[in-house]
Write a structure and sequence with these properties.
The chain is an alpha/beta fold. It has 10 helices and 14 strands. Helix 4 runs parallel beside helix 5 and helix 5 (102-115) packs antiparallel against helix 10 (301-318).
């Protein structure tokens, strides 16, 4: 099988992480990098071993040899960047949050479907093999019937300029809060009956910390916290009728530990060796493209829209709108 010729759109920090990852993947070629600056693209290509460097995104997507474009630009740019890829028939792996809002997501996915172009959201935790391990342990009844979970994710990143800027869809929710939300939806699935949420604000008017409670139709409860002000334990804790499970690092599952009714540890599983964790979403794209799919089963389009609608509702509750909305 020929190598997947992968291109990256955007030459920032997360693009560098993906570049380092695919450098260690045998079935992926570091083919092209696109930036709004040719000088920056050439420097990136030189540093990470990409064959081609383009000084505009349109030049990148015009290259017919590109098999997959990884979009690594700010949230506010995902919509237009992905539209450009779709217009030229280039399959897309778009970094989370998929778009800035649900309306953009729906329009983008409808466009991709009509054009017959593959697109999926790069919310990497959806693709990690540890997710299936967690789900299997829960399905086997190791903690009885799960009824509640908590998930916390916080980093000291409020000084990052793009996170403070409303015009770039900044704030904690789209950058950090998307992980606790996905954790709850991945673990409990099902239909959410009610969401109640609050936040505090930066002086620029975006959320700096937020907390949400999800009430499920079957009575389950998820309490989710995210912050760009403070460091959190990154734990996801699932509570059941016969014990509880602690998942270390909901941003890249490191391990799970199970405790019984007496709060004694009865099982511990570490995550398998990995490059960075990003490789799994790339491998999922390769399989989906080989099978002629337009989405990845790990993160179906319907689930992407569900997440975006929930985040829209939270921002509406907080009175936060981006300037371009």
């Amino acid at each position: 099988m020929k190598k997947l010729r992968m291109a990256i759109m955007g030459a920032g920090g997360i693009a560098s992480c993906m570049a380092r990852t695919i450098a260690e993947m045998e079935n992926v070629e570091r083919y092209a990098i696109g930036s709004r600056s040719l000088e920056k693209a050439e420097a990136f290509a030189s540093e990470y071993g990409f064959a081609r460097a383009y000084g505009s995104y349109e030049e990148l997507v015009r290259d017919e040899n590109v098999d997959l474009v990884y979009i690594a630009t700010p949230h506010s740019e995902h919509f237009e960047n992905a539209k450009l890829c779709i217009a030229y028939g280039r399959p897309v792996l778009c970094e989370k949050a998929f778009t800035a809002n649900a309306a953009q997501a729906c329009e983008l996915l409808e466009m991709a479907e009509k054009a017959g172009v593959f697109i999926t959201e790069a919310i990497w935790v959806r693709y990690l093999p540890m997710l299936e391990t967690i789900r299997k342990e829960l399905a086997d009844g190791i903690i009885g019937e799960p009824t509640m979970l908590t998930a916390n994710l916080g980093y000291v990143i409020s000084q990052v300029p793009r996170l403070r800027r409303p015009e770039l869809a900044g704030g904690a929710l789209l950058d950090v809060g998307v992980y606790p939300l996905n954790f709850a939806l991945m673990i409990f699935g099902g239909e959410v009956a009610k969401v109640s949420s609050v936040c505090t604000y930066t002086d620029t008017g975006v959320d700096e910390q937020n907390s949400a409670t999800l009430i499920y139709e079957d009575g389950k409860v998820a309490v989710l916290n995210s912050s760009m002000l403070s460091l959190s334990d990154r734990k996801g804790i699932i509570y059941g009728t016969k014990g509880f499970m602690i998942v270390e690092n909901i941003n890249n599952f490191e391990s799970l530990t199970v405790y019984d009714q007496d709060r004694r540890e009865i099982k511990h599983i570490d995550c398998p060796p990995q490059i960075s964790g990003y490789e799994y979403e790339v491998e999922a794209c390769i399989r989906a493209l080989e099978e002629g799919r337009l989405e990845c089963p790990q993160m179906p389009h319907a689930e992407t829209i569900r997440v975006m609608k929930m985040m829209d509702a939270m921002r509406a509750e907080w009175g936060i709108r981006y300037p371009f909305e």
